[in-house]
Design brief:
The complex is a heterodimer of chains A (125) and B (707). Chain A is of the alpha+beta class. The model of chain A has no long low-confidence stretch (mean pLDDT 76). Chain A is globular. Chain A has three helices and four strands. Chain B has 707 residues and is α+β, with helices and mostly antiparallel strands. Chain B is 30% helix and 33% strand. Chain B has 13 helices and 20 strands. Classes of the chains: A alpha+beta (125), B alpha+beta (707). At the A-B interface, strand 1, strand 2, strand 3, strand 4 and helix 1 of A face helix 4, strand 2, helix 7, helix 9 and helix 10 of B. Strand 1 of chain A pairs antiparallel with strand 2 (111-124) of chain B, so a sheet runs across the interface.
């Protein structure tokens, strides 16, 4: 059966109706028939249940299998709090630096890889 | 929990019609057998040309909806007549999903799922050049995506018990609907309903009128809502209504005209089970009549055939759910006066318990839908304390449709026994010579199993388990992000953020000192290299600190923490190395370093004071809802289905000499996600005079699997 591109999104309004969580899962088919997934995670919030939502954070992650234990644990269980903070913090700054010509691509890639490395040992494996 | 719509046959017919047509369209769409069994890149490398790009959804069989899909098609990178490109084909689903999300940014319910699949069809290698079709199929639980370009629709969206879901946004200020229904008691009835949004948008004015050869119903209402956003008052609805009805009961006609002032509220979820409090009160006043058609039937002693009346009603209810089941229970009480005088003439008590559960729902083998065995059960009861007179319409009348204790509220408490084998209001004790009952109970169970349908997440998406794994990844990531979000609400983090501002300023001094040393130590190339690295790392730390402040401190621990990969650690390592190379020179650098460490220590102290476990617990609780939704969607929910239905009812009223009544029936249910339309016939195995051998029943309800 040939690989089929798929996009799935799920949006949920949180219990207090002040927060909206959105997942987007995109399956891309490679030329060799293999597939890769990437995930968009978005958090929106508002001050009252009738106001418009405003974007708080949007996170895009490529989900390709890795060989290391932390990568596998991440693939199985998702980013933990440390990884999420690193992705939104230093890794994002390094990516912006590269985009702005302040940093190098190598630095940006190093920090992106660190997202896997900073996984908390106590997080689910 | 499920909410029963009664007397809205027009909506039944309309929705059933579209449900079946949509289902047929979907089936037809999927039934097309494609001969494109190669990977996309094969067709690109063999020079295929796109014959046509098709964007379809369940309503694409309608011409207007085809035009609606045209705007999505126009946004795609692959168009008719172009050479096929595998990468452009791949991009399609994400582009369509993004366009839909942008077009409908607000949810009409508490959740929305959108699935876009792509497939290649009708590959023809014999033509020159070879051709194929590209088909994108769009499934979304947001009805507006299907209907907003078709009709001027404003749904009275059913409020989820947990949250009183948001009302659909609409640019229309006036809605007009025809009404039509048939049942054995009222016979064929027709009418009209209108709803107009007032200019300020905070309230709406509605009117409805319906008449048959034997009945009349009408009403005028002004309604609105406010959102105090408090734990016990998440949302409050208010309603001022004038209503009138005259309905046959077989032995007599009962009529009522009344003015009602109503307040209805709901709490926020109070426990991890999503336990939500629902409550409401109303004040009513008007006139009630009873017109006897059969002389053999008498009004009970102290009953009033025509009287003014006034009453105060209140109810309280709770709802909760587990992964596959939901529960709701309610108690209502009415204090009534059978005259214009403020005397307490009767007190009515009502109890209601609802259960809905899916007992089995796994998709097996190659099945394209879930065979969930669904059970809905309702147990209701009531009693009227007759102190000095009860207007007949206030007594209990049973049948396949029951009046609602609090008309207009989505939280329904039956004001009489429900037994689907007896026509509306025909279970009333008249066969015993007394019209209307003073106490009752009823038990209703409905079982259904889909025999045909389509799962909401297409089989081709879930096959192989990859999809489920990625959902788990998303869930884990979302939980972590939420935990960080809740941490940002803590006072300790705010304190850390304030200190990080000081650290940021000190980095400016560090940068100046490093520049000074660099200028003075140009001859020492090794040291200059160390200083250059330190300046670069210090700059990176500055920018990361700025980023942390923009993220409300969520990333601060990974910026100034002692971890191996933090920007802070890189700077500290640089400074330690430089210190060793300077051999005690430049004491100002040591002072600045010490000051930086002091700030970092204070920040870490604040970060350690954050109750991380509480934030994690809050995030887990929030995500429990999401997980439940995801699991239901993947393992249980059908986009549409057709199910045979079995129904069994038991009911009893007092006073009545004939005892317990039964209803045994069957029918068919059409479902779209969690919205059900059920039509069936229930047999009365032991009919008594005036009850008949059975009755048709239908209902529309929403099963709350997504709270």
């Amino acid at each position: 059966m040939p690989c089929t591109p798929v996009s799935v999104s799920l949006e949920v309004i949180a219990n207090d109706q002040l927060m909206k969580i959105s997942f987007g899962l995109n399956k891309v088919c490679n030329n060799d028939g293999s597939s890769a997934w990437d995930i968009d995670f978005e958090l929106d919030e508002r001050t009252t249940p009738t106001a418009d939502f405003a974007l708080v954070v949007k996170l895009s992650v490529d989900v390709n299998d890795q060989n290391s234990g932390k990568a596998q644990a991440t693939a199985n269980n998702g980013l933990d709090a440390s990884q999420t903070a690193y992705a939104l913090g230093p890794a994002a700054t390094a990516a912006q630096d590269y985009k702005n010509g302040v940093g190098t691509l190598e630095q940006a890639q190093t920090h992106a890889n660190n997202v896997i490395a900073v996984r908390d040992p106590s997080s689910p494996s | 929990m499920f909410k029963r719509f009664t007397g809205r046959a027009a909506r039944v017919i309309t929705d059933l019609f579209f449900t079946l047509l949509a289902a047929a369209a979907v089936n037809n769409c999927f039934a097309q057998s494609g001969s494109c069994d190669q990977e996309g890149y094969y067709y690109q490398s063999h020079g295929y040309v796109v014959r046509s790009v098709i964007v379809a959804n369940p309503f694409s069989f309608l011409q207007a909806e085809k035009k609606n899909m045209a705007w999505l098609k126009a946004a795609l990178p692959l168009q008719d007549g172009q050479p096929f490109s595998s990468s452009a084909y791949n991009q399609g689903p994400a582009i369509i999903e993004g366009k839909l999300k942008a077009e409908y940014p607000d949810l009409s319910q508490r959740f929305r799922v959108t699935v876009v699949t792509a497939r290649l069809e009708s590959c023809d290698s014999t033509s020159s050049p070879p051709r194929l079709d590209v088909q994108y199929y769009v499934l979304t639980t947001d009805y507006r995506a299907y209907t907003s370009h078709l009709f001027d629709v404003r749904k009275a969206e059913i409020a989820e018990p947990a949250t009183t879901a948001a009302v659909e946004n609409t640019t229309s200020w006036l809605m007009v609907k025809p009404l039509a229904e048939y049942n054995a008691t009222e016979r064929l009835a027709g009418g009209i309903s209108t709803l107009a949004t007032l200019p300020n948008g905070d309230a709406s004015l509605g009117m409805n009128f319906q008449k048959s050869s034997s009945s009349t119903q009408g009403g005028l209402q002004l309604q609105g809502d406010i959102t105090p956003d408090l734990t016990l008052a998440n949302r409050l609805d208010w309603r001022i209504t004038y209503s009138y009805f005259k309905l046959p009961t077989g032995s007599a006609d009962i009529g009522e005209g009344k003015l009602t002032l109503q307040f209805i509220g709901s709490s926020k979820p109070l426990t991890h089970l999503g336990l939500v409090l629902r409550y409401g009160s109303s004040v009513e006043g008007g006139n009630e009549q009873t017109m006897i058609a059969r002389p053999s039937v008498a009004l009970p002693k102290q009953n009033l055939s025509s009287s003014g009346f006034a009453s105060v009603k209140s109810y309280i209810g709770v709802t909760a759910r587990t992964a596959h089941q939901s529960f709701a229970t309610s108690y209502g009480v009415e204090f009534g006066s059978a005259s214009s005088n403020p005397n307490l003439d009767f007190v009515k008590h009502l109890f209601d318990f609802n259960y809905a559960g899916r007992l089995y729902g796994k998709q097996t083998g190659d099945e394209v839908f879930h065979r969930s065995l669904t059970l809905e059960a309702e147990v209701a009861g009531g009693v009227i304390q007759n102190l000095s007179g009860i207007p007949t319409p206030e007594r209990f009348f049973g049948g396949n449709i029951a009046q609602s204790f609090m008309p207009g509220d989505t939280w329904t408490i039956p004001d009489g026994p429900i037994i689907r084998s007896i026509p509306q209001d025909q279970l009333n004790g008249s066969s015993s010579g007394i019209l209307g009952a003073t106490s009752f109970y009823s038990i209703n169970t409905t079982w259904s199993v889909p025999v045909w349908g389509r799962s909401i997440i297409p089989r081709e998406v879930t096959a192989g388990g990859d999809f489920k794994n990625k959902l788990e990844f998303a869930e884990g990531t979302a939980t972590s992000t939420l935990a960080l979000y809740y941490q940002t609400k803590s006072a300790a983090l705010q304190s850390a953020l304030a200190e990080s501002e000081k650290l940021y300023n000190k980095l400016t001094a560090l940068d100046q000192e490093l520049t000074t040393i660099t200028n003075e130590q140009q001859s020492n190339s090794a040291l200059v290299s160390q200083l250059t690295n330190a300046k670069a790392d210090s700059g990176f730390l500055e920018r990361s600190l700025k980023g942390a402040q923009a993220q409300k401190g969520a990333t601060l621990s990974q910026v100034v923490g002692n971890g191996q990969f933090t920007p802070w650690s890189a700077v500290l390592t640089d400074l330690s190395s430089i210190k060793g190379s300077l051999n005690g020179q430049y004491p100002e650098l040591a002072t600045i370093t010490q000051s930086l460490v002091s700030s970092q220590t204070l920040i870490l102290s604040d970060l350690q004071a954050i109750d991380v476990q509480a934030a994690q617990k809050q995030a887990n609780a929030e995500m429990a809802t999401v997980r439940s939704i995801l699991n239901s969607l993947v393992d249980e929910v059908n986009l549409f289905s057709i199910s045979p239905v079995a129904a069994f009812d038991v009911a009893r009223i007092w006073p009545d000499k004939f005892g317990t009544r039964y209803g045994i029936g069957g029918g068919v249910r059409a479902s779209v996600v969690n919205f059900n339309v059920t039509l069936g016939y229930s047999v009365n195995p032991n009919p008594h005079p005036g009850e008949g051998r059975g009755a048709l029943f239908f209902s529309m309800n929403v099963i709350d699997l997504f709270r």
